[in-house]
Amino acid sequence: VVTRIAQVVDSLLFGDVHVDSAIRDSFIVHSTGTAPIIVNAVTLSGLFPNEYNFSFQSGITLPYSISPNDSLIVYIDFKPKDIEQRNANVIITLNKSASCSIVKPLLLFGRGVQPLVDIRSRTLAIGRVCVGTTFDTTIIIRNPGNAPLIIDSIM
Questions:
Q1: Lower Cβ count inside 10 Å, N or C end of the chain?
Q2: Which residue has the higher pLDDT, 57 or 136?
Q3: What are the residues whose beta carbons fall under 8 Å from the beta carbon of 123, sequence distance 6 or more?
Q4: In this predicted structure, what is the pLDDT of residue 129?
């Protein structure tokens, strides 16, 4: 009896990544049957597929045949373009005549993080201040972002 089975993890968790920064992870498509499987396509879908990219080891192109007990490494790069959850899916399409198994979509979880500056008043109404005197006021700076805001100096 010939069996063709592909095994893949259910998800990749990228965690918190600063907006416009990239992080790489990978997953393995493993052939566990008695005959090769053929990977015809790898595609991205879901809410934010354009914030993820995939690639393979140098020289590997699709379609790609995976022998029994061998594997294919797929690299995933996550580069969030905005804050908060930026999830997507990886769809792996196998040659229908070459595999009895269907690979479920691989879920990609990542969150874009970035501090944001919100200053309530953009101008100060100081009025007349004589040379040599001081003027006290309060400026409220808020961070509506989802990462720490570090202020090194105010000029």
A1: C
A2: 57
A3: none
A4: 85
